[in-house]
Amino acid sequence: MGREPLLVVIVGPTASGKTSLSIALAERFSGEIVSCDSVAVYRGFEIGTAKPSREERARVPHYLLDVADPTEPFTAGDYARIARPALREIASRKKLPIIVGGTGLYLRALLEGLFAGPPRSEELRQRLRASTEEHGPEHLHQMLRHLDPAAAEKIHPNDHSKLIRAIEVCMAARSKMSEMWKHGRDPLMEFRVLRIGLDPERKALYERINRRAARMFAEGLVAETWTLLGKYGELVPALTSLGYKQAMQVIRGECDEATAIAAAQQGHRNYAKRQMTWFRREPDVHWLRGFGDGPSLQSQAESLVEAKF
Q1: Segments in the chain below pLDDT 50
Q2: Fewer CB within 10 A of the end CB, N or C, for the chain?
Q3: What pLDDT score was predicted for residue 154?
Q4: CA distances from 274 to 29, 162, 309 (A)
């Protein structure tokens, strides 16, 4: 009986060169790439997501880009349900599936599965949002500490979407979310998983993040946001993601472009910190010091993959 097929997972903070490394590995080992990005799944969101270019997509097949309408909710569970068959289809053709991206929750849903929680309740969510506006941003975390202290310990007080989901689970299922986490997961079992993490020096990473954020605005992020706003309306959740949020502030006249760029740079730097905190909790990651577009790091990554074949 043969071994399970290999699955390579590339994680790391934004602007660390994950795309470059994934393409290098795909070309070296006959691989195909599955994106793991919670905004890149939406059609029309191009500049602010730093999606692979047309040229890059022509070099290597990419999956899970542009698969969702921006007006429709797209959850970590939705991602896992679409991504798992894509991995199996790639492996069935004797190609190497490579997951690349920075959305930790989506990756966890894909590899470990999600618990069978209750469906979303928009009515309850609206009440919770209204309560937050009335009582302040700390209100949701305080509510969750009362309902499920263990879950509250694991969720940042400013992560309102996760707080709302945790409260929703507690109220709808009449069970603590932290208890449900322990049951009902459906881990991905049919692959041998090699996790490669990018860990660039922080000062150099922040410089890259600053340049990338400025370049997004120079390449037309505000114009792209105008187009998305006209097509889908301002209630599309993805328009609150980094970059698009600041472009919306320019459109509304709340700040000038220079201020928006500085805010986007700061937001992306903070996001990079959160990503590293999340990914350092992932098991069995082979951390490589440097950027994914560096020849030395690519050589190290190739050696890791070669050893697993």
Answers
A1: 1
A2: N
A3: 84
A4: 31, 14, 32
Query: d(Cα 35, Cα 101) in Å, to the nearest integer?
Result: 6
Strands 62-63 and 285-288: unpaired
Cα–Cα distance, 151 to 148 (Å, whole number):
6
Q: Where are the domains of the chain?
A: 6-114+185-308, 122-180
Query: E strand or H helix at 107, and its extent?
Result: helix 104-112
CATH of 122-180, one of 1.10.530.10, 1.10.20.140, 3.30.200.20, 2.170.150.40: 1.10.20.140
Check residue 110 and give its pLDDT.
96
DSSP label at residue 49: G
Give the domain 6-114+185-308 fold: Rossmann fold (3.40.50)
Which pLDDT value is given to residue 279? 95
Report pTM: 0.81
The per-residue pLDDT for 48 is 96
Q: 10 Å Cβ neighbour count for 211?
A: 12
**CB neighbour list of residue 306: distance below 8 Å, 6 or more residues apart:** none
Nearest to 212 by CA among 48, 11, 38, 20: 48
